[in-house]
Design a protein that fits this description.
Layout lengths: L5 E2 L3 E5 L2 H8 L4 H6 L14 H12 L5 E8 L1 H4 L4 E10 L5 E7 L8 H16 L4 E6 L4 H9 L3 E5 L6 E6 H4 L1
Parallel strand pairs: 5-6
Antiparallel strand pairs: 1-2, 2-3, 3-4, 4-5, 6-8, 7-8
Length: about 180
């Protein structure tokens, strides 16, 4: 599965690769070069751990690549300067060809519509370029901004989530049209 760069009004979504994951693990300035963006001192978001990066590398090196993820970069036309890394997220394909969506945004950039913008770009990509019929997302009900991102992106509540205390949302190719 080849992941391409995506664009939205205020964001440039750059594919996660083995090389970018290694640069992150090494805390190397090379990540800034690979992304052509500044990396804030508060990077990474809380859910992006060393374990997560190792899992990404394994998934990206597998015979059948099921990870399709991006770094979310706020473009300089907003900042009047250099682009800056603000978050990330993407899709994991399950055996039944459904996908799971996950994302995280740095605290300073939350509640500004960036996650909704990025999620919509990812959904457009998934439903137009890939053979995806449905996409799931899981969150905690108390994470109201995350719930709103999903709702604004067209996801519908679909019951309890995989992990205790979470809820699941679903969007299908038919409901996305």
């Amino acid at each position: 599965m080849t992941t391409q760069q995506l664009m939205s009004d205020r964001l440039r979504l750059v594919p996660v690769t083995v090389e970018t994951c290694i640069a992150e693990l090494e805390k190397s300035p090379k990540l800034s070069t690979l992304l052509d963006a500044d990396i804030p001192g508060c990077w990474p978001p809380p859910l992006v751990t060393e374990e997560t990066l190792h899992q990404f590398i394994s998934m990206l090196q597998a015979d059948e690549v099921r990870l399709c993820s991006w770094y979310w970069i706020q473009t300089s036309r907003i900042l009047n300067g250099r682009d800056i890394l603000i978050g990330g997220g993407g899709l994991f394909t399950n055996d039944d060809n459904s996908c799971e969506l996950g994302y995280s945004v740095l605290t300073d950039f939350q509640n500004q519509g960036y996650a909704t913008e990025a999620v919509k770009a990812i959904l457009t990509y998934a439903f137009s370029v890939r053979d995806v019929e449905q996409i799931y997302a899981h969150t905690y009900p108390y994470l109201v901004p995350s719930v709103r991102v999903l709702q604004k992106s067209g996801f519908l509540f679909n019951g309890p989530g995989k992990e205790e205390g979470t809820i699941q949302f679903l969007i299908t190719r038919k409901t996305a049209d």
